[in-house]
Amino acid sequence: MAPVYAALAKRPEIFAPTWIATGQHSSLADQAFADFGVKPDMTVELKDVPAGVSAQVGATVAALAPALATSDPELVIVQGDTSSALAGALAAAARGVPVAHVEAGLRSFDFDHPNPEESIRVIIARLAQLHFAPTENAAANLRAEGFADRRIHVTGNTVVDALMSVLPTLPAWPETLEPPQAGKRLVLVTTHRRESWGDQIEGIARAVASISDAVPDAEIILPVHPNPVVRDPLATVLGTHPRVRLTPPLAYGDFVSVLRRSSLVLTDSGGVQEEAATLGVPTLVMRKVTERTEALDAGVAKLVGTDRDDIEALAIHLLTHEDDRQVMAQGGNPFGDGKAGERIASLLAREVGALRVVRSGETEGPDGAKDGTGRRSAS
Ligand SMILES: CC(=O)N[C@@H]1[C@@H](OP(=O)(O)OP(=O)(O)OC[C@H]2O[C@@H](n3ccc(=O)[nH]c3=O)[C@H](O)[C@@H]2O)O[C@H](CO)[C@@H](O)[C@@H]1O
């Protein structure tokens, strides 16, 4: 979201953006804010909220209500598929404030994978009046769900903006990490998805150990997500492996420095799929399904699933068949040119004045005709 906020802030004659943070994943979020030199204008306080999406969303909506009353926005912009994004859209809708969704239209068409992100982004789409889709494929998903074409804009994804904004000033290698040994090839691994918790995370860890054993000139770096459900099985299986480095979550610039030097990425992350594609790093997606099919179509990524044997076999093949790895590396980046934030700000400058809030929850037909009952329109 930082690229959108920066682009809005560059237009003070039109926008007065207020960044409200919810404190979700606060340690990772604070690190990201520092990486981009931004800080929220407001942070809502969430105290003693039980774990789980339902409690998080409920508490965040309740906490955002007074924040929106104070800031009294004409538009609320939410990004992605987190419980915070859903809470922001719900709190805005409750006040009759139009919602714009950044990274709109991503669909795996499977509510269990990823869970809860697929459900969240489908719900946000219903609440949004403006959809900023990263790709034509995402826009097609929204049109197929009946959203009016004039509300959908293909902008590229802001994750590419963020990446391109740090690349020019990145060191060759992070100061915080031992450089790889000469002649070693780097494999970067990240895993954290809820649907992989338990046996599948352990299977991924064992696959990583086997890959390292089979490919002695590969050095594996695995920044460990702080959630103990992820951290503990990884430490148990890989904690003493000689050529596997478990690190704390890396600062964004450090992570990108490692990614840029990697020969192969194994990940279940969404953003990393897009960053790797942008940098031309072949990627094995350790999920049952991905909403980033554009990377598969481009050939820069392959959907390998979460089965240990499948991950081992394909990773070892690519690390021992350089021609095949190179073919993937040439796949290209389908996620945008790094100007999504600027495009979104320009579109908002044109659109916000004309926005009508259709609160029936019904979708508008292509010509803007509505079939909902009861609606409130505001311009
Ligand atoms: C279902 C899904 O795919 N949803 C995605 C999900 O995000 P994700 O899956 O991409 O989540 P992570 O993998 O946790 O974060 C990744 C980012 O973290 C950086 N990173 C990573 C490790 C590290 O050590 N240091 C770092 O700096 C890395 O460069 C990257 O930018 O939610 C977002 C918000 O709703 C969505 O927009 C997005 O679609």
Automatic annotation (TrEMBL):
Residues 358-379 are annotated as: Disordered. InterPro entries: UDP_GlcNAc_Epimerase_2_dom (IPR003331), WecB-like (IPR029767). Residues 13-348 form the UDP-N-acetylglucosamine 2-epimerase domain. Belongs to the UDP-N-acetylglucosamine 2-epimerase family. This is UDP-N-acetylglucosamine 2-epimerase (non-hydrolyzing). One of its GO terms (molecular function) is UDP-N-acetylglucosamine 2-epimerase activity. It comes from the Bacteria. The keyword Isomerase applies. Its EC number is 5.1.3.14.
